[in-house]
Amino acid sequence: MKKLVGLLALLLCLQVQAQQAPEFWNDIVAFKKADIAHPPIAHPILFVGSSSFTKWADVNSYFPGYPIVNRGFGGSTLLDVIRYTYDIILPYKPKEIVIYCGENDFAYSDTVTANMVVNRFKTLFGMIRQNLPDIPVYFISIKPSPSRTHLMAKMKDANTQISTWLKKQKKAGFINVYDAMLNSDGQPKPEIFGDDRLHMNAQGYAIWQKLIQPYLIK
């Protein structure tokens, strides 16, 4: 009887923990399980951020010969990447980190300003620097999307501030994909996006590949 009560208590505890798990915890657990089943290469180039990386499932085919581990999780903000830095960045001991995030920070709340996004990125960068002081860190500019043109002014402001700040940091850089994704009229190129007018198709990723590759270390 005591064993049965103990088992029920344990199951209840696990259920409560599951209900209280922070957002995206299931994604993080999936990464951990994947690493156990298929241990990643040592000291990879780590891609981390939101759905533009998550949906780049064939990223390794775009960069043959580069040891890329993709740990993008869809829907994430910079706050989420900060929350899971000790789960999805530091354990890999990467030789290089490429970050794409910040777009959802704006999309999820009208009250989020460019300064807030910049400060969130600085916090993430600081956490990485404290633990991996000699690793190159690159930030991909927040992209313009047809479904989020109303946010472009904020995004451009954040990109400018982050780019300026990174110029003052050692072993860091800003990869500008923003301008290459615009038509001559300053609007996002519709043909490089999928039906949702938010996520890129192969044409969009081809643009990213050309701009990102010069920064990667073999």
Give a structural overview:
The protein is α/β, with parallel strands linked by helices. The protein has a single domain (23-215), classed as Rossmann fold, CATH 3.40.50. Helix content is 45%, strand content 11%. It is built from ten helices and five strands. The chain has helices spanning 2-20, 25-37, 51-54, 59-62, 78-83, 85-88, 103-107, 114-131, 152-166, 202-212; strands at 45-49, 68-72, 96-100, 137-140, 172-175. A five-stranded parallel beta sheet has the order 2-1-3-4-5. Helix 9 links the parallel strand 4 (137-140) and strand 5 (172-175). It starts with a helix and ends in a 6-residue tail after the last helix. Residues 1-14 have low confidence and may be disordered.
Key descriptive features of the protein:
single chain; 218 residues; alpha/beta; Rossmann fold; 5-stranded parallel β-sheet; 10 helices; 5 strands; 11% strand; globular; disordered N terminus
